[in-house]
């Protein structure tokens, strides 16, 4: 354990509602790192820096990650005001990677109108490698009884710059993660906080406030990331833009994309919202993989995994371990 004074702080490179991430240099070695600073007393559930520290310590062995796809905790410090996590200094995340690979061109129509078209140039092999890397991270953390609860492209960094080698994804940010059985005494397993995950990446059970969810919420989020990477234009094209701001719009987009949930959806049977949805929404049919993951629609293994992780019933949603078995077969 170090002290804050052991580091020279530099520019802010990220952060969230309750955290700041700064570039820093360890004075004694000149090595550069990312420093995540949190004031625990300012946090609101489910954010919990003390739990994040416990989880990162559990996921690491002697300061080095036991899994190449999970962020290593290099060092940390605590004082009366804040907790600091010393982490590797990664250069880019999945959001930035996709943006850099998307090219927008002007198209001139016969009627004289100009429209802009965006093309996603992520390669199929790259998408599959990143997808498998995230699943490998989930396989590991789920084996440690940890639910990440915020799988999204901003929380997938890369440990290398490519340069002819496959980009290796690294899962970061365990600030709202859940450690079974009761999140260090903070949440009952059958009564967990549902205000988790980010935008498009929320699993449908969270939108119906089903509180006894499990690690398969991470699997659903990873499937939505696959949709993003596999799209023609670098967007989750079957989801409405309003999903960023409205859970109702997100639920509608999920139904439009994956069809109506079965009336026998076990975990939703006690949900008033689910009963109302079944009574009042028109029945929807699931879209084809041509629409959902167009760049990988001809990859039989990917299609098999995707079709079996993007399902409403968590008992039928593939685990990360099982998904990897299929992809490696």
Structure description:
This protein has 329 residues and is an alpha+beta fold. 30% of the residues lie in helices and 19% in strands. The protein is built from ten helices and 13 strands. It has helices spanning 49-59, 94-101, 124-143, 204-207, 216-229, 247-258, 272-280, 289-292, 300-309, 320-327; strands spanning 7-15, 19-26, 32-38, 60-61, 64-65, 75-78, 83-87, 102-108, 114-120, 146-147, 156-158, 169-171, 178-179. A five-stranded antiparallel β-sheet has the order 1-2-3-7-6, with helices on one face. Strands 4-5 form a two-stranded antiparallel ribbon. A two-stranded antiparallel sheet has the order 8-9. A hairpin with a 3-residue loop joins strand 1 and strand 2 (19-26). The longest helix is centred in the middle third of the chain and has 20 residues, at 124-143.
What is this entry, summarized?
This protein has helices at residues 49-59, 94-101, 124-143, 204-207, 216-229, 247-258, 272-280, 289-292, 300-309, 320-327, and strands at residues 7-15, 19-26, 32-38, 60-61, 64-65, 75-78, 83-87, 102-108, 114-120, 146-147, 156-158, 169-171, 178-179. By secondary structure, the chain is an alpha+beta fold.
Identify the notable features of this structure and list them briefly:
5-stranded antiparallel beta sheet; 2 domains; 329 residues
């Amino acid at each position: 354990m170090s002290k804050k004074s052991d580091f020279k702080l530099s520019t802010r490179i990220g952060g969230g509602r309750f955290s700041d991430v700064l570039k820093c240099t360890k004075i004694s070695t000149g090595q550069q790192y990312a420093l995540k600073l949190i004031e625990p007393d300012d946090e609101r559930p489910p954010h919990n820096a003390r739990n994040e520290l416990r989880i990162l310590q559990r996921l690491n062995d002697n300061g080095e990650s036991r899994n190449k796809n999970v962020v290593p905790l290099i060092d940390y410090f605590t004082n009366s005001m804040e907790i600091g996590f010393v982490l590797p200094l990664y250069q880019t995340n999945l959001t930035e990677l996709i943006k850099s690979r998307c090219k927008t061109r002007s198209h001139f129509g016969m009627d004289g109108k100009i429209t802009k078209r965006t093309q996603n140039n992520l390669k199929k092999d790259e998408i599959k490698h990143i997808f498998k890397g995230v699943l490998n991270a989930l396989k590991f953390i789920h084996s440690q009884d940890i639910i990440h609860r915020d799988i999204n492209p901003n929380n997938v960094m890369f440990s290398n710059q490519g340069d002819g080698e496959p980009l290796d994804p690294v899962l970061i940010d365990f600030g709202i993660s859940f450690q079974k059985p009761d999140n260090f005494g903070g949440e009952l397993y059958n009564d967990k906080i549902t205000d988790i995950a980010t935008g498009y990446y929320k699993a449908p059970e969270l939108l119906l406030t089903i509180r006894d969810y499990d690690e398969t919420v991470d699997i659903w989020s990873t499937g939505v990331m696959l949709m993003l990477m596999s799209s023609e234009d670098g967007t989750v094209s079957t989801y409405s833009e309003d999903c960023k701001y409205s859970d109702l719009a997100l639920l509608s987009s999920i139904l439009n994309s994956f069809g109506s949930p079965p009336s026998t959806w076990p975990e939703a049977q006690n949900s008033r919202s689910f009963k109302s949805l079944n009574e009042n929404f028109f029945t929807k049919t699931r879209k084809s993989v041509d629409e959902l993951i167009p760049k990988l629609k001809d990859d039989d293994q990917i299609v098999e995994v995707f079709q079996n992780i993007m399902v409403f019933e968590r008992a039928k949603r593939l685990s990360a371990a099982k998904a990897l078995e299929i992809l490696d077969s």
